[in-house]
């Protein structure tokens, strides 16, 4: 059974005002002081955020338990220095991002200018184990059209600098400012994949292989395919659903490859349109169906994803839980819908943040 690991970025906020707080160094120092051997929490590009990474898990219930535990630990460390954590993919309240003092991050600020200084967004990256680079590239080629559906499910960034952005996942639109971000053409072989990455690094526009921000890529550090399209999810249950579907997609793609099935030859232009539609609408309205690239009600596309990976989910014992989680998501809404409903109820973005702080640990 393939293992799955999740990386989540959490926003540090003032517990009273809801405004982002640039205290990541203090939070990480507190965590290291309490446990010098801890390898869970890491700093990120911006001082208003902190990241954690789970261990690889074969059982999705165990993965969910670890996500919940890491969120609670992050909240405890943050609380001890006077701030709180919120699983928000963008700050609802205005923020002036503060780039961390790190040679790599300072290079990025100098290289990319205002794009670095403005685009503080928070994502969820899912790592799914693969047996080889050959299998990994075959998977990357075959999951491309389904990745926007994961963006729609996870969408949790409707507000930007104190205003409604008009998008369910504005994070994904902001993330696209990086020069290496977005969908990819078909690679066909590990050799072509690695040649493309090497050529990109050789331009000098990006610093190294780790700065290749494909929507799905071979991880530079682990024997995994890394899916990078999801917002950090407000509820941990949604993060588990995204991870479950990600493993289902990887396993299904690997089976298709072994059976000799060719990947869908959608152009990058169409994939960008599908990603835009997913960012705009989330799970409300219409999405582009991954097989036809034509509009279809979002709930039908989500169920289409479940059907596509059903055999793999069933073999992993995940199918029934995934169906229940998808039904709950469509009934209760994702983070974007919840945030907008909270604003409508309270009239206050500060209250939206406060409730999201509470839900982050639920």
Automatic annotation (TrEMBL):
One of its GO terms (biological process) is modified amino acid biosynthetic process. It comes from the Bacteria. It catalyses: L-cysteine + L-glutamate + ATP = gamma-L-glutamyl-L-cysteine + ADP + phosphate + H(+). The keyword Ligase applies. One of its GO terms (molecular function) is glutamate-cysteine ligase activity. ATP-dependent carboxylate-amine ligase which exhibits weak glutamate--cysteine ligase activity. HAMAP family: Glu_cys_ligase_2. Belongs to the glutamate--cysteine ligase type 2 family. YbdK subfamily. PANTHER family: GLUTAMATE--CYSTEINE LIGASE 2-RELATED. This is Putative glutamate--cysteine ligase 2.
């Amino acid at each position: 059974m393939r293992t799955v690991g999740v990386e989540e970025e959490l926003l540090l906020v003032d517990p009273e005002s809801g405004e982002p707080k640039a205290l990541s160094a203090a939070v990480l120092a507190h965590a290291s002081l309490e446990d010098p051997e801890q390898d869970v929490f890491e700093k990120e590009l911006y001082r208003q955020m902190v990241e954690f990474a789970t261990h690889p898990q074969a059982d999705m219930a165990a993965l969910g338990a670890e996500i919940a535990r890491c969120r609670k630990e992050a909240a405890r460390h943050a609380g001890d220095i006077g701030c709180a954590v919120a699983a928000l993919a963008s700050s609802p309240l205005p923020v002036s991002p503060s780039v961390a003092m790190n040679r790599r991050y300072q290079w990025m600020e100098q290289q990319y200018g205002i794009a670095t200084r403005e685009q503080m967004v928070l994502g969820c990256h899912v790592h799914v184990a693969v047996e080889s680079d050959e299998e990994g590239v075959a998977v990357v080629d075959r999951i491309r059209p389904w990745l926007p559906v994961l963006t729609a499910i996870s969408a949790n960034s409707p507000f930007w600098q104190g205003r409604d952005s008009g998008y369910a996942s504005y994070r994904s639109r902001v993330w696209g400012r990086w020069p290496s971000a977005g969908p990819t053409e078909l690679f066909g072989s590990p050799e072509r994949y690695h040649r493309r990455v090497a050529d990109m690094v050789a331009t000098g526009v990006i610093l190294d292989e780790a700065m290749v921000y494909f929507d799905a890529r071979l991880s530079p550090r682990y024997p995994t395919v890394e899916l990078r399209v999801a917002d950090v999810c407000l509820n941990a249950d949604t993060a588990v659903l995204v991870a479950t579907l990600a493993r289902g997609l990887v396993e299904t793609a690997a089976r298709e490859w072994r059976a000799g099935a060719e990947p869908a030859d959608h152009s990058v232009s169409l994939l960008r349109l599908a990603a835009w539609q997913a960012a705009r609408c989330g799970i409300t309205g219409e999405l582009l169906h991954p097989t036809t690239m034509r509009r279809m009600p979002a709930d039908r596309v989500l169920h289409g994803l479940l059907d596509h990976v059903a055999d793999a989910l069933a073999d992993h014992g995940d199918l029934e839980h995934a169906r229940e989680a998808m039904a709950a998501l469509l009934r209760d809404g994702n983070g974007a819908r919840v945030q907008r409903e909270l604003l409508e109820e309270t009239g206050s973005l500060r209250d939206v943040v406060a409730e999201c702080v509470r839900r982050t640990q639920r």
